[in-house]
């Protein structure tokens, strides 16, 4: 398996633009997590899905952020409109019910100018 | 929700010495405690974990201890090597599958 796949790896955009981050979990994993990592706040859980259903989105900072998981092999995290304070590395991770370990993707480094 | 605190934020040791990183958690229902290592520009990767029914676990030069009464757990790295230099994160899980991470410890091993 190729592991968790994220795209793009780097994104530079201007304030006010829409940003869409993509994630493909490991095949067979039924949990998918979106994290944001910054120097100031560390690793924060934004939202997680189980069997494509959002379970806890209490970490989503505000209405500008939304996440979807239309099927077991794809999820998106969208920011609209983006702001400079959204600049961070966004990680996607997946696991399955019988496992403990969460497997992280390579991350997307987002810079909002 | 769960609150995980991690100390120290930075740690420098001489090669060959031991390194200890400590974490505390707030929710007594937490039952799983992993440690992740993140090298510069890379993704976090699990290096060791422990469940609440175990007090200590060891894997070669790495060990983790858990004190449920005091609600703290620690990572111990012995005979440190330059390749151990990275940021280490502790985490706690309370039954569901979401992890609450500590703020990280930047470990530097000086050759």
Number of helices of chain A: 0
Instruction: Give the overall silhouette of chain B.
Output: globular
List unreliable stretches of 5+ residues of chain B: none
The helical percent of chain A reads under 10%
Output the number of helix runs of chain B: 0
Strand residue content of chain B: over 45%
Task: Indicate the low-confidence ranges of chain A by residue numbers.
Answer: none
Helix-strand pattern of chain B: EEEEEEEEEEE
Distance between the termini of chain A: 36 Å
Q: State the end-to-end CA separation of chain B.
A: 41 Å
Q: Quick one: which chains have the greatest interface?
A: A-B, 21 and 21 residues
Overall shape of chain A: globular
- Give, in order, the helices and strands of chain A: EEEEEEEEEEE
Give the total of beta strands of chain A.
Answer: 11
Could you estimate the helical fraction of the residues of chain B in percent? under 10%
Report on the structure:
The complex is a heterodimer of chains A (113) and B (111). With 113 residues, chain A is mainly β. Chain A has no helices and eleven strands. Chain A has strands spanning 5-7, 10-13, 19-24, 31-38, 42-50, 53-56, 65-71, 74-79, 88-95, 103-104, 108-112. In chain B, strands 2, 4, 5, 9, 10 and 11 form a six-stranded mixed sheet that branches. A five-stranded antiparallel sheet of chain B has the order 1-3-8-7-6, with no helix packed on it. Chain B starts with a strand and ends with a strand. Classes of the chains: A mainly beta (113), B mainly beta (111). Chain A binds chain B through residues 31, 33, 42-45, 48, 50, 55-56, 58, 91, 95, 97, 100-102, 104-107, and chain B through 1, 32, 34, 42-46, 49, 51, 89, 93, 96-104.
């Amino acid at each position: 398996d190729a592991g968790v796949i994220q795209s793009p790896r780097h994104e530079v955009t201007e304030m006010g633009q829409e940003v869409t981050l993509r994630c493909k979990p490991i095949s067979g994993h039924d949990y998918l997590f979106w994290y944001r990592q910054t120097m100031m706040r560390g690793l924060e859980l934004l939202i997680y899905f189980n069997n494509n259903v959002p379970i806890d989105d209490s970490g989503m900072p505000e209405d500008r952020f939304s996440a979807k998981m239309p099927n077991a092999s794809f999820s998106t995290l969208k920011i609209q409109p983006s702001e400079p304070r959204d600049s961070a590395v966004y990680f996607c991770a997946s696991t399955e019910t019988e496992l403990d370990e969460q497997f992280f993707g390579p991350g997307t480094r987002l810079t909002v100018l | 929700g769960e609150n995980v605190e991690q100390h120290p934020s930075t740690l420098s040791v001489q090669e060959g010495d031991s390194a200890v990183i400590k974490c505390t958690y707030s929710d007594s229902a937490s039952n799983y405690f992993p440690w992740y290592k993140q090298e510069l520009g890379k993704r976090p990767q699990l290096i060791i974990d422990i469940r609440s029914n175990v007090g200590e676990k060891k894997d070669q030069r790495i060990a983790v201890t858990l004190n449920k009464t005091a609600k703290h757990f620690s990572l111990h790295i012995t005979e440190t090597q330059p390749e151990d230099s990275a940021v280490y994160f502790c985490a706690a899980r309370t039954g569901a599958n979401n992890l609450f991470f500590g703020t990280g410890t930047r470990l530097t091993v000086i050759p």
